[in-house]
Design goal:
The chain is an alpha/beta fold and 303 residues long. Helices cover 42% and strands 19% of the residues. The protein is built from eleven helices and twelve strands. The strands form three sheets. It has a seven-stranded parallel sheet with strand order 3-2-1-4-5-6-10, sandwiched between helices. A three-stranded mixed sheet has the order 7-9-11. Strands 8-12 form a two-stranded parallel sheet. Helix 3 runs parallel beside helix 4 and helix 4 runs parallel beside helix 5. The protein is globular. The protein starts with a strand and ends in a 5-residue tail after the last helix. The mean pLDDT is 95.
């Protein structure tokens, strides 16, 4: 297939682009700068000079030249909303594939570090996180395009994505050591995100491109680990203490938005992905990253 990846220079989009190119697909990727274009070319991905602001029309034109489009960008709400609307309008009636990368943050719960028993499969109802309302609206726009406009449109909603180069919860807890001298967690530290390795996410995208059903949502979750468990393992690795902190103390290490994420729970099950696509994660344990030298460097005061 000829696949256009919007977000190909990012952590997730880049992983998807490399995976699909390795499978033998012709992959093009959006590049906002010359440096980004050079990086894509070095990975076997053909760059398309465009962005989601002043050159969004160029990105939409590139989507029409592809067999499939993957939206995996981390854009601001206005850019994402406008891009999804433009893409679904442009692809209407073409039968082309469009896969939108979302995330389990749309259903996260603000538990202030407490455990939540709630876990959501793809078709379960939930109350969206207010700050992620734009993302839930984008999901709905994509799924409606399959039902109403003849686009083979799907949404993939992973949990926390981890792997080499990520910036997730484990990275943030290593960073907290540099800021506070301890591996910190908020309150009880029992709040939990489902997580999944970038390679397993990439395999799910491949399966969705091959046999995914239009207007379907697919979750990607392999395991889950409470933040306190992560903090205790980080503390053990570095020879420091693991310590519970208040929201106010946490903001000194992570800022307000990072603290919001690190105090919440977001648990999902991959029912459709496993039953309909046969997806099975191969790397379920995020704690295997403990001791990684990249992460240890984040704990240094100068990091």
């Amino acid at each position: 297939m000829n696949i256009f990846v919007i977000g190909a220079t990012g952590f997730v989009g880049g992983g998807l682009a490399r995976h699909l190119a390795a499978e033998g697909h012709t992959v093009t990727g959006l590049a906002r700068t010359d440096a980004a274009a050079d990086a894509l070319e070095s990975q076997g991905v053909t760059p398309v000079a465009a962005d989601l602001d002043t050159r969004r029309a160029t990105a939409v034109e590139a989507s029409l030249r592809a067999d499939a489009v993957i939206y995996a960008a981390q854009a601001d709400p206005e850019q994402e909303t406008a891009t999804v609307q433009d893409l679904t309008r442009a692809l209407a009636g073409t039968g082309k594939s469009l896969i939108f990368l979302s995330g389990s943050g749309v259903l996260m719960q603000r538990t202030a570090g407490a455990w939540s028993p709630d876990v959501f499969a793809e078709d379960d109802s939930f109350i969206p996180e207010p700050l992620a309302g734009f993302r839930k609206a984008a999901e709905d726009t994509v799924l409606a395009a399959a039902a109403d406009d003849g686009v083979r449109a799907m949404v993939i909603r992973p949990g926390q994505i981890w792997g080499p180069g990520d910036h997730g919860h484990m990275s943030m807890i290593y960073q907290s050591v540099a800021a506070t001298g301890a591996a910190i967690y908020i309150g009880q530290g029992l709040n939990t995100y489902s997580h999944v390795h970038i390679e397993d996410v990439a395999r799910l995208f491949s399966l969705a491109l091959d046999k995914g059903r239009p207007a379907r949502l697919y979750h990607a979750a392999a395991g889950e680990t409470p933040n306190r468990w992560i903090a205790e393992k980080v503390a053990e690795d570095l020879g420091v203490k693991a310590r519970s902190v208040t929201v106010e103390e946490a903001e000194q290490a992570w800022g307000p938005f990072g603290t919001l994420i690190m105090a919440a729970s977001s648990r999902i099950r991959s029912v459709n992905a496993r039953r309909q696509l046969g997806w099975q994660p191969e790397q379920p344990d995020m704690l295997t990253m403990i001791g990684d030298q990249r992460l240890r460097k984040l704990a240094l005061p100068s990091a």
